[in-house]
Amino acid sequence: MTVPAGIGKQVRGRHYVAISQLSGLPETTRCDVELARTLAEARGCRSFNVLRIDDERKEIALLDYPSLGDEPFPPLGASWRVHLPTSLVTFRAYDHSLNRPILHRTELLLPESHPAKPACAVLTQHCESLGLFENTAIIGFRNQWLQLIAQKGYTLSGFELVPLGNDVGDDSSGTYSDEIYHIERYRTALSRSSMSAPVQSLVRDGLLTPNMSFFDYGCGRGDDLASLQASGFAAQGWDPHYRPDAPRVTSDVVNIGFVINVIEDKAERVAALEGAFNLTSSVLAVAAMIGGADSVPGARLYRDGVVTSRRTFQKYYTQGELQHFLESVLDHDAYPAAPGVFYVFKDRAVEQTYLIAKSSDRSRVARARLASVVAYRPPRPKAALLPKKSESPEALAYLEELWTCCLQLGRVPTIEEWPDAVAAQSLFGSTKRALNACLAHNDLAVLAQSEQGRKDDILVMLALQFFQRRRRFTQLERRLQNDIRAFFGSYALAESQAQKLLFSVQDPQLIASACEASSSQGFGWLDPGESLQLHTSLVERLPASLRVYIGCATALAGTTTAYDIVKAHINSGKVTLLKFDDFAGRPAPALTTRIKVRLRDQDLDVFDYSGQYQPRVMYNKSRYVNEEFPHYAEQVAFDEGLESLHLFDMSEHGVPVEDFHNVLARHRYEVRGFELGRATTLPPLDAPCGAVFRYRDLIECGETWHQTHIDNVPQSPESYNALFDLATQILDPVVDYFGGIKLTYGFSSKALSASIKGRIAPKLDQHAGCERDRRDQLVCDRAGAAVDFLVVDEDMREVAQWILEHCPFDRMYFYGHDRPLHVSAGPAHSREAFEMIASGTRRIPRKLQF
């Protein structure tokens, strides 16, 4: 399956292609897609708009993004994954997920004529400039993505990222007259868990470093100061409300963030801006709110801005208006750093340095006006049900509290269960009218769903109660009594349904159907016809029959919360409970205890792996949890990375913990938290470097080294990683095919390079590996590693041709049929092959032809 360049997008080796782009794929790939579509339709696939093509896994996923083109980062609605070699189709619905996968760079999947394509492209550029795409392992899910945006000092509004500015409130119930308001500016100051957008911009653009002084003019509660000081910055600040007595001192960098937009007096606004600039010796950062008054519910026009329902003033600018205001007041150029964020330089030298470094990113064109986002509100109840006075914030808040109570109960509360019956009567005239208003104000389908869930909870509880001594109805707690009356009519009818549910779990077909339905909702890993395995935190979200099936096992083995993984066997009437060492905190936790419960003979077997046995690691942990589990995104990236190394048989039980880490170490990998990264240690020189060589062989080789025995040991762990890749990706395969080879030139330190007679190019040839110079810069920008070698009695052109056809090399230089061949492995994998043609005293590279 191949996807031509320029069609769709690629993420970690997988191609995403919109249905509208299908005609641009090769015929063979289209045939594979048609086969996948046919197989998926048999599993209920009726609607999808994106294909995910994974050539390595021979898998095509049919993805349905219902809001593609309507949202900048549309969430995934459903997925049908088709494994072509086995025709296995795995379905997953995300409609109930609290953390749905999302799609990025959507402009690459939209037709040229789509009206949202330009906005998506601009948004992608902004995301790139903020570094939001740097860690692709954590951005694929909505919650983590929005948290990352907030950490960068922004919020997502429509198709734009807007700086986190001032808290304008969302209470639309306030009423105002035309009087002169007493504006409480300090109430706009936000408490932030990370630095604000302008301060993050200063740090990101290198305009604020720890050796510079920083002053926050209008610092509010001082969150930016605290964050900077904790990071070693010399930061001070002043605020007219929170720090009125703090001195205002001249500093290299001054920030006046989201201050001018809360000052209702124009002259005072100008004075604040000038005051901040007068304290600046290098650069002033200015941030203000971008958008319009229509984005603030309940706001009223006042002077050149609005007054919010919290009695705060907000002046909204367009990007161009803000730039013009800054330049007209300060008589200096204002450079946009982000929407609503500008730099004004006092030091011209710093200004020029900034412009040279950022010239490709600069633009003096004002950004588009922030589109207002109108939040959905359900229809208001009829006036007869909701008296005029009950439209107050207190009444609406009470309706929300009452609705929450209804959802928790799954039904209408009895009078003793009301959150505050007296308040209901006071606000609405009676509890009945309050209830009617609450039901009219909300979606009853949500309450019906809650009701069904609560009924299932009670049936599961009663079914498992048959394993214990039966309690009389009068012995039940009051709420449960009310539940049984409301949902079942009587205790006898409830017990009858519970008993029927208990007996039903003897049917393997019923269990198989429940396991399949659970897997389609993301609750665990389904081995079709065999078992469902999932984390115990998901058990409570399973169908009632499956919860009873597992509950029968825990009636013998204890509560599921004492374990990490539960395995429900479909046909054998068994349930296995697994306990791991720090399951939540490790990407490859070790199994410590296994309990197999045999339901048919009401017995169990216990296997303890913490003693004489060596605990074995778990592979593919992400299979058994879902996207709401902590560190899920990182776990998925870890599992995919481990599988891509092909070091372990992922279909089998894990190897012992010590063996697991030893295998990784031999291949120059290590586990750091939830990250599977390259090794950061220096191995012994006699340690294996691939299947044939030692590190010493690639370091102590060549004519010059044998003459001088100079200290030629790499100092960077990355150099050893590169040497290992060179050995395993190129040298080992060559030896395996051609036989023994002779290394003529390998790693070359600065000392060895200086001793070599003749023309060499350490900055280009990659023999320096990943070593760094005194300025901490790579000696060779291409990184990687290189070696020259000779296969005795072989035509080196044939060797070069074989490498070109079979190995993922970076660069290769052919010097002659009987001369050593230069070949490198590096991150670029450019596969550039040249023949070095003699021309006088020099050699000129020409593209190698076969």
Within CATH, the superfamily of one domain carries the name Vaccinia Virus protein VP39
Largest sheet: 6 strands, antiparallel
The CATH class of one domain is Alpha Beta
CATH fold label of one domain: Rossmann fold
Roughly how much helix do the residues carry, as a percent range?
25-40%
Q: Uncertain spans, ≥5 residues at pLDDT below 50?
A: 168-188, 358-385
End-to-end separation in angstroms reads: 27 Å
Nearest-integer average pLDDT? 86
Q: What spatial order of strands do you see in the largest sheet? A: 1-2-3-4-5-6
Structure description:
It is a single chain. By secondary structure, this protein is of the alpha+beta class. Among the domains are: 9-151, no CATH class; 165-173 and 188-361, Vaccinia Virus protein VP39 (Rossmann fold, 3-Layer(aba) Sandwich), CATH 3.40.50.150; 388-442; 688-847, Muramoyl-pentapeptide Carboxypeptidase, domain 2 (2-Layer Sandwich), CATH 3.30.1380. The protein contains 24 helices and 33 strands. The strands form eight sheets. Strands 1-2-3-4-5-6 form a six-stranded antiparallel β-sheet, covered by helices on one side. Strand 21 and strand 22 form a beta hairpin. It is globular, with a radius of gyration of 33 Å. Residues 168-188 and 358-385 have low confidence and may be disordered.
